[in-house]
Amino acid sequence: MDLLINPPASRIQICLFKSKRAILLPRNYKISAMIIKEAHIANLHAGPTLLARILKQTYWIVGAKRLIRKIVNKCVCCRYHSKPVKQLMEICRRLVSRLDELLQTPVVISQDQSK
Ligand SMILES: [Zn+2]
């Protein structure tokens, strides 16, 4: 009650003020998923652990970790940007094996006899 009359001054006091009055949300409500999606995008596609920490400051979503993991795993951007590394490694491995094949095959240089 004292905080409502005298607003918090420092950043630490503001964080404590917010975390003490976290908004309780059930996991199966659509607004919970919408808040998580918005926070995921606003925080540059943050991972599940970071996202849980960020959301905990303002919201208390019951069973949030599982819901956050589900939403992050479904994110198209995160999936798109995580795949190329694996594909690139596969391409490099194929190129190296192909290069080994090419280096082992003898090169035949034909001489043109029409000159
Ligand atoms: Zn994402």
TrEMBL record:
Protein name: Integrase zinc-binding domain-containing protein
Domain Integrase zinc-binding: 34-81
Pfam families: Integrase_H2C2 (PF17921)
The species this protein was found in: Caerostris darwini
Residue stretches spanning the membrane: none
